[in-house]
Amino acid sequence: MIETAQAFGVDIGGSGIKAAPVDLIKGDFAEPRLKILTPEVSTPKAVGAIVKQQLEHFEVPESVPVGVAFPAPVKPGQKLEWIANLDQSWVGVDITEALSEECGRPVVVVNDADAAGLAEVQYGAAKGQEGLVIATTLGTGIGTALIYNGQLIPNTELGHIILSAKHLDAEKYASSAIRENEDLGYKKWAKRLTKYYGLMEKYFNPDLFTVGGGVSRVSEKFLPYVDIKTPIVPAKLRNQAGIVGAAYYASTKQA
């Protein structure tokens, strides 16, 4: 592994598993990432084998912390209760234990939305921001991460917050996928986002919202029309955030 990397990050998704050595000083990849398609039957053994392959590809030393961004709530020492985008054989499994065993070395696991949020706070759009940052990702659903004065409040699922009696689940009303499926214009979609972020603002009184996901590339088309008091800005790390955030998180957990 290249000398400018201090940690290694992996981002496990339903379609692809991406990994790269990370320069924690710059908050960037130290080498181009390696992406391998997620196995059709994405069991812990099959996914773990790919992560091990990526570690071997980059010749990651045993001393380097390895962080894994995972698409489910992660509670250290506890077994997974549910999973949406990977094989159901993950249910009842201790994720950290299973991946560490398959890789033949300790790994640190963090929820994928939390990893992305940490990356934005440490290196991206929320760097230097004090108080409460709510990092959001608008995609198939709505992912969220809460970071207070740099400390992660893990495993929030605020994409499922109840908007109203009519719109029970926020992500079924205001996600990027819903915008595409219902062919909403950006200004009309921004009205839905105003309802969502406005309610979050009311409940949490955050100091900053960040907005990630692929749609953040065209943030100028909708963010100016989100009518809330709290500053709201596009994420900067975008598709790198999961890997960078996971690597950073692992570095904070190494003894």
From TrEMBL:
UniProt cross-references to NCBIfam families, sorted A to Z: PolPhglucPhase
Coiled coil start-end: none
Entries under InterPro entries matching the protein: ATPase_NBD, ROK
Protein name: ROK family protein
Homology family: Belongs to the ROK (NagC/XylR) family.
CDD domains linked to this entry: ASKHA_NBD_ROK_PPGK (cd24058)
Organism: Bifidobacterium reuteri
